[in-house]
Amino acid sequence: MTTLIRKAALTIAGATLTAGALAAPATAFADPASAATPTTAISVTTDRDNDRRDNRDNRDDRRSDRDDRRDERSNRGNGRSERELRVRYQAQPNFYYCGPAAARNALSTMDRDLSQDDLAREMGTTENGTDSAHLITKALNAKLGKDAYRTTEVSTPTADDKQTDQMRRDVVTAIDNSRAIVANIAGTATDTDGTPHAFEGGHYISVVGYRDNGNTVKIADSANPDQSSYWITTEALADWTATRGYSA
């Protein structure tokens, strides 16, 4: 296991148009022999008209479906300036469950209802905490049943521009795919309201939203229910994960 990601220490913390409805008007005193041919002609014409109308409706439906898919694609990445995921928040029950709690809060955005104890067993959490972001990634993928997450290390003492840009892309991509990120952080960072958040020994948090095209991110923090969520710049978050990393 890489030594660049330090151990996370203890924290307290269709209406469908009906076809064939049209019919020739009834003629009460018409001669049956003379009326048969016009009635048949009208019926054939009506059926043909209905077929053409149905074909037009089908083409319109297909065009509408294509437009919907195009709109959905345009809402991803640069086409969308902000998005937040719905979190069923839980605080951590003790000082060393920040890893399981952050993973559990992240999975709740995908309607996965898992206990922190279950996740703690999955990632080998002890009173010394959860060893690294790699264990978080492994547990997330195990509970999802697919390799949706990967670990990104921030190996330097502070994040450089390239690492910050990568985090911004990762956040936007993950959130647009309805997937929260779990970050392994250490030190102190100040949110957009000017409130500092200090975890000198290390901590795990969930990233559950973004705005300003990914330049600001929303945090779900299990450490303190009174400060369960806040916004922070992506640059500050990248520095917060320095020498550690994140699962995205």
UniProtKB/TrEMBL annotation:
Key words of the record: Signal
Residue spans of biased composition, Low complexity class: 32-45
Record keyword Signal present: yes
UniProt xrefs under InterPro entries: Papain-like_cys_pep_sf, Peptidase_C39-like
Residue span(s) of domain Peptidase C39-like: 86-223
SUPFAM superfamilies: Cysteine proteinases
Name listed for the protein in its UniProt record: Peptidase C39-like protein
Key word Cytoplasm present: no
